[in-house]
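Morning F.,

Quick status update on the modeling queue. The single chain you submitted on Monday has been processed. Sequence for confirmation:
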Amino acid sequence: MAWLAVIMHIVFVCWGNICRSPAAEATFKKLLNDRELQGKITCDSAGTISQHHGNPPDSRMQKAARNRNIQTSGTARMVTDHDFENADFLITMDHFNFSELSRLAPNEEAKKKILTFCDYVSTSDVEVPDPYYGGGTGFEKVLDLLEDGCTRLLEELQKKLK
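Structure tokens below.
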């Protein structure tokens, strides 16, 4: 398949980069590994604030993801101009972070790379809710959306690369 020679980079973005975006990154990486596409399409995650810089993913999200055989890792960081330069797409978890990321974009060309995650889910959800202040069911809801959306996102990316 000729498209395998192409490398594409995705950055998943939420507010603090400790719940939704690192879980999206881990979910997407699992799909890439399952389909033997690691290194062909790469991904990362970042936040629109620096408050949690250096922290690992939220322990509740780690546990919920681990129960689905999804391994979260890394440390929180804020999105940088480097992300806008090197990513093909920056995918936000909600409308607030879409607005914040648009504000942080260094130029109009960078703004064109910003997409919303729920454009790829098969449900009627328009945002991936922030589970940070909720209970365990919030993390499960997020992971349901991420598994659905990441699968559909990968299918779309494969079509674009052919």
